[in-house]
Design brief:
By secondary structure, the chain is α/β, with parallel strands linked by helices. The protein is about 35% helix and about 25% strand. The radius of gyration is 17 Å and the shape is globular. The structure holds adenosine-5'-diphosphate and magnesium ion. Adenosine-5'-diphosphate binds next to α1. It holds the Pfam family ABC_tran.
Amino acid sequence: MILKATNIHKSFGALPILKGVDIEVQRGEIVSIVGASGAGKSTFLHIIGTLDKADKGELFINDTAIHRLSSNEMSAFRNQHIGFVFQFHHLLPEFTALENVCIPAFINGTSKQKAENRAMELLDILGVTERANHKPSQLSGGEQQRVSVARALINTPSLVLADEPSGNLDSENAASLHQLFFNLRDSMSQTFIIVTHNEELAGISDRTIHMRDGLIYG
Ligand SMILES: Nc1ncnc2c1ncn2[C@@H]1O[C@H](COP(=O)(O)OP(=O)(O)O)[C@@H](O)[C@H]1O
Ligand SMILES: [Mg+2]
């Protein structure tokens, strides 16, 4: 078991957003979360990504009790164990693709040589080696997302969380990004939890979780 969240509650002000969400995810699973806008999907992803704290409930990732960690411990845990891919790439514009991929490794204390070697391996796996020295603005949308995926993977995370990763891509680039997720799962047992509106992706996932009004169904 990679992830176990139990009875997660979250309110913003007086407004309850998550009303007791449970989820369990096994290593190597690709789980899709679908649901209408405003259902609480991103809020939930932020909590299981340790970017935000639940008001109530328990969260275990790789047997670590996240709900018992301090903010500093959460940041270190996040850097080492969670990779993020967002709808918009969030690559730093003044750095090259290679540098962007290396940054989480540098934060984790990895040497420049080791980080760059691993980053080049990942850029190769993701099919963007020839883009290593280009800035994000010089890349296509599909290439930017591939670089984002490499960045998410650089610290060999327990879990990759993606929030509408193909929401900004045309259907061909979306399909090829989704295929990459499955390749990464098959080759390195990488675990993914993906919030998506893409029915094709939800359809080929190992499991689809439906979220409505702060609760999970099925
Ligand atoms: N930081 C915040 N402060 C106040 N309300 C928020 C905040 N983040 C999200 N919300 C509200 O919580 C609800 C769920 O948002 P979100 O988790 O982003 O939904 P989804 O990703 O499913 O579209 C929405 O009504 C949104 O306006
Ligand atoms: Mg959202």
